[in-house]
Amino acid sequence: MPQKHDDYEKLLAHKRFLNDVEQGIRYANREVIHADLPHITKDGILSFAISVARLRGAYLSAAMRLGKDGQGAAPSRDDVADVRAKREMYEEARGAFDALREAIERGYVEVTELEGA
After folding, report:
1. pTM confidence score
2. How far is CA 14 from the centre of its chain?
3. Which 3 state secondary structure label does DSSP give 74?
4. Tens digits of residue pLDDT in 34-76
5. Domain-by-domain residue ranges, the chain?
6. Which residues of 27-43 are buried (b: 16+ CB within 10 A; e: fewer)?
7. What is the CA radius of gyration of the chain?
8. Distance between CA atoms of residues 88 and 95, nearest Å
9. Residues 111, 104: contact at Cβ < 8 Å?
């Protein structure tokens, strides 16, 4: 029976340790990110979302132009390079937007409209 008690105590110690680490990570992220992004607003987030949507539209539009001749001809290297560049821009912006959402969800940044709530 002492073995089970020792295992339980070790498990509790591990959980406390992980909780302390998680709190430290949350604090570090909040301090560092908040210093870089002190004033996040709903309008700023929506403006960012619109920029991402525009990049998505440009990417999809460029992709659809690959079939512009209607005959299924192979696109040119320049056309493919244009699609690639637009995809990369869109994916980078989308990734950044997802990172911002995660930072808000985790409480790393404060949205001005929510302060004091």
Report:
1. 0.78
2. 29
3. coil
4. 889 888 999 999 999 999 999 999 999 999 999 887 777 888 9
5. 2-114
6. eeebeebbeeeeebeee
7. 24
8. 10
9. yes
Rounded Cα gap, residues 17 and 14, in angstroms: 5
Q: Let me know: does 48 contact 100? Beta carbons within 8 Å.
A: yes
Residue type, 8: Y
Q: Which two tokens stand for residue 23?
A: 């709190």
Alpha-carbon distance values, 35 to 40, 41, 110, 111, 113 (Å): 11, 15, 11, 13, 18
d(CA 45, CA 116): 19
Q: Rounded to 5 degrees, what are φ and ψ at 39? A: -130, 85
Inter-CA distances, 91 with 54, 61, 82, 97, Å: 12, 15, 14, 10
Q: Is the pLDDT of residue 117 over 70?
A: no
pLDDT score of 95: 98
CA–CA separation, 17 vs 5, rounded Å?
18
CA distance 97 to 79: 27
